[in-house]
Amino acid sequence: MIVFNQLPNIGLEFMNIEHQQAADLFNKIETDFKRHDVDAVIAGILEIQQHCIEHFAHEEREMKTYEYPPYNVHKQAHDRVLMEIDMVVKQLQSHRTLSKISSYIEHGFPSWFSHHLATMDKVTAEFILSQQAVKSA
Question: Which residues, 6+ apart, have CB-to-CB distance to 39 below 8 Å?
Answer without folding.
Answer: none
